[in-house]
Every structure is written in structure tokens, then in C-alpha cells.
Amino acid sequence: MRELKCAFPKTIPVLTGYVFLGIIYGILMTTNGFPAWLPVLTALVIYTGSMEFLMVDILLSSFNPVSALGTALMIGARHIFYGISMLNKYRGTGKAKFYLIYTTSDETFALNYDAVIPHGCDRTKYYLAVSFLDQMYWVSGAALGAFFGSMITIPVQGLDFVMTAMFVSIFMNQWMKDRDELKKTAQASAAEDRKKISLQDWILRHAPELTGVAGSVFCLLIFGPDRFIVPSMIVILAILTLIRKPVEAVYDAAEEKDQEASVGEAAEEKHQKEADEMNQTEAVHEAAEEERI
């Protein structure tokens, strides 16, 4: 499948993070006395990394379903904002939407939200490929940790930092992508004797990143490290809603340029292929004429 082949390179950072964390989760479950099949099943069915780690303590503690439900709702509250953000992206995906919603983890959301669909790939199938690969990475890591955890003797403390590093990598990738788009805008504006990017253009182009950092830092200072996630999501959503139209205008213009460039490259490639075929045909005809002579 072309979409699977195109999606795999984009999911390699998720592969490294999910497999490592999945292994830790599998080891944690088996070392606490749970059967080896349980972490694999929960990784496949629950598929919420942070909640699965907390579930180890929940299963070991006394039965309290209300507390477990409250914890799950609090941990998963951020997915409400993911769903709102993906309304336009997942529109028109048909029955595949149910699986896309189910597999919208933090990393899958980041990849699909920022995805530029490669030329020749079906949009729905591409989103499905990213979602499926990410889920399989997590399940595979949990399986490795569950079945081979007893063989691992190295300390595993601190390995969960790989997820933080991955989010920093995704953030920097988005920042550099927006920076490159600004450079393209500057080059296009050079003909109009406007070589410098205005401060307003710079802010609008980097608005999602700046809003995320500023909103998170603000709520961290106000609510503290244990309670800042949900308030920061609300603040970020409110700010992005207020500035949605100008920011979308900037991104839509850039997306149209990318699509035009993609179509142009495809047309050039097709033209080159036709020219090569024509040259080959002429060479065959010339060889046939020489043989006749």
C-alpha cells in the first residue's frame, strides 16, 4: 500500500518512543505479577499510554471504580481538544473515522494534524496508515516487554524521557517548517521590494507554537506542575479560537502553494518520463534503420 509506505518514515520518531515505553510498560506489568498476555491486551484495547501506567497501581490497589473513572477522565480530558482540532482533517473519512478517533494518541494527533498528504496518496488511507502504525508500535513494545522483560537487566529508570524528547523534536520540526515557509514568502516578496518579513507575519506563522509555549508556561506558574495540563489546554484553545481566522488564512495560503508545487512536480515528472520514452522509441527506430542499411 502506497500510503503505508509514505507514512512509515514520518512515524519513525513515534516508533522509537513507543517501543521503548511499551517495553517498560510490559516489564512493569509482569514484574508486578500480572500475566504476560495482559499488557498486550491492554495496549491493544485501552491504548492510552499514561493511563496504562497508572492502571498498574489501580489494579494493585483496592477496588474503587469511581476513583478509576475519575482518573481516566482527568487523564484523557486533553483528547477533547484533539477531537475539536481534527474535525476538518477527519471530515469525509467515512467509517474509517471511528478507528481514527479511537487511535488518536498524542503523537498520532501531532503527525496527522501536521500531515501534508503526499501526491498520489488517498487522504483517509494515509491517516489510517499513520494511526495503525503508531498503535502497532505500542502493542509491539508492550509484547516485547511482557515476554522478554525478565531477560532485561539494565536499569529502566528515566527511559520515559524519550517521549519528552520526541515532543521537542516534533515542536522543532514544526517551527523549522514554518520558518522555511516564511523564507519562501520573503523570496516571493523580493520582487515587490519587500525583503523583510513583518512582525505580524512572523507571529501569525508561528502562532500555534508560541501559543502552546506561552499558555503552558502561564498555567504552570499559576496552577503548578500537577494541575496545569487541563487549564493550559483550555487557554490554548481559547487563544487559538480567537485568532483562528488570520492564522488559518496564512496556513491555507501555504497549503495551496504546496499543492501547486506538488502538482507541478508530478507534471514535470510525467513530462520527463514521456520524453525518455520518446527518446527510447527514436533510438529503437534509428537502430532498425541502421540494420536495414
Please supply descriptive tags for the structure shown above:
293 residues; 0% strand; mainly alpha; 14 helices
What does this 3D model show about the protein?
The protein has a domain at 1-159. The chain has helices at residues 2-10, 12-31, 37-45, 49-60, 65-75, 78-85, 96-102, 106-113, 123-148, 161-189, 199-205, 207-223, 229-242, 244-292. It is mainly α and 293 residues long. The radius of gyration is 25 Å and the shape is globular. α2 runs parallel beside α4.
Largest beta-sheet characterization? none
Percent of residues in helices: over 70%
Task: Indicate the proportion of strand residues.
Answer: under 5%
How many helices? The count is: 14
Average pLDDT, rounded to a whole number, is: 80
Q: How far is it from the N-terminal to the C-terminal residue, by CA? A: 49 Å
Q: Helix/strand/pairing class, anyone?
A: mainly alpha
Over all CA atoms, what is the radius of gyration?
25 Å
What ranges have pLDDT less than 50 throughout 5 or more consecutive residues?
Answer: none
> Which word captures the global form?
globular
Number of strands: 0
What is the N-to-C succession of helices and strands?
HHHHHHHHHHHHHH
Describe the structure in brief.
The chain is an all-alpha fold and about 290 residues long. Helices cover about 75% and strands about 0% of the residues. The protein has helices at about 1-10, 10-30, 35-45, 50-60, 65-75, 80-85, 95-100, 105-115, 125-150, 160-190, 200-205, 205-225, 230-240, 245-290.
Helices and strands, with pairings:
Blueprint (H helix, E strand, L loop, with lengths): L1 H9 L1 H20 L5 H9 L3 H12 L4 H11 L2 H8 L10 H7 L3 H8 L9 H26 L12 H29 L9 H7 L1 H17 L5 H14 L1 H49 L1
Helix pairs in contact: 1-9, 2-3, 2-4, 2-9, 2-10, 3-9, 4-5, 8-9, 12-13
